[in-house]
Amino acid sequence: MADPWLALEFGVDPAERIAQVGAAHEAFLTAGVTPHPVRDVVRRSWERSALLDPETTAPVDLTGDALESYRAAHPLARVLPLFRDLLGGIAQDGAHLMAVCDAYGRLLWVEGHPGVLRHAERMNFVPGARWDEQHAGTNAPGTALAVDHSVQIFATEHFVRPVQRWTCAAAPIHDPTTGRLLGAVDITGGDHLANPQSLALVRATARAAETLLAGATPVEPDLVQVSALGRDEAELRVGGRRVRLGRRHSELLVLLLDHPEGRTGEQLGLDLYGDDRLHPVTLRAELSRLRRALGDELLDSRPYRLRGPVRADFRTVVELLERGDVPGALGAYPGSLLPASDAPGVVRLRRLVDDQLRGAVLAAADPALLAAWTAMPAGRDDLTAWQAMARALPAGAPRRPLALARIRQLSGEYDLSRATSLQRRRH
To answer: Quick one: pLDDT at residue 1?
Structure first.
């Protein structure tokens, strides 16, 4: 079976495929249909990109000192020498570029021959530019992040026309401790990149980076690790195994983590169900099943509490904030705590973590931090944060017009919401 992440099957004429996919692209733009030659991964990406102008250019939202401080604090800065060792020859051969982006598609480093870099600048393939699908359409780093898989994007498979003269291959990179998506590594060049070797190279480079990151942050063998930020169901890592918990068990685990001193059954019931929905029998059954998932050695009763060292991603964010490391806290925060949960104790904790992080970002008044916050789901509609970013950016900053436009949009939406609410109260 052909690899669905490779752009061309063996023996396919590249020029013929460019013409076929180009025609399919035009059909998609005019009629919303995607004929046969388009791969599923590309078709789905086009559908996610459909609201973009096909002539758009990726926006640049970080420049100068703001960019330097942001990427210096990014975890992938630690493995930049590895990227240069493995991909440096390709980046300097006069035909290719090496690029590294963060988890939001923001390019951190773009390196290569000066002549190729000048061509890339014309489409804003430069450090500080946003190449996630939301801003730049179908492209290898943006699509690799969207689907969390290595992928090639070939010529006319790109959604935005100015990028269709390029071919690229990218692979996502994860934090080896938490599994959190950190960003992607990419090589970009001409049509000749549409081969198995280029995809294998970025895959191997991403795995090498994860291995190096794992060695840089040794973990105690008995340490239990919990990831609950930006996901509806928590993931537990213990004894070399990964356990994905269901929603109710995820809530119980988070509540126990928030109270290392322990909780009674009644307290857990209130945190889980609320004042008027205490279910002691159901709760005991859930805790019994959670103990089986965790192991008898990890969960005590009377009171219920976790035993041994446990590291949780939401506690890491709070600890970094307490140390004054706002960039580190923001980098360790992929999203809100169990966002689908309506358990009262989890809702309170989620608001506390989000409010602490938001308050620290606003107090820092750093354009890079504000840009990262407003790029996240928790900050995307945060009018106050957008206003703070507009104030922090100099008048000529490329990001400032985008911030002002978003302020106008959100202000209009809030005014409409207030007017609708007032009208309902009158009736």
So the answer is: 43
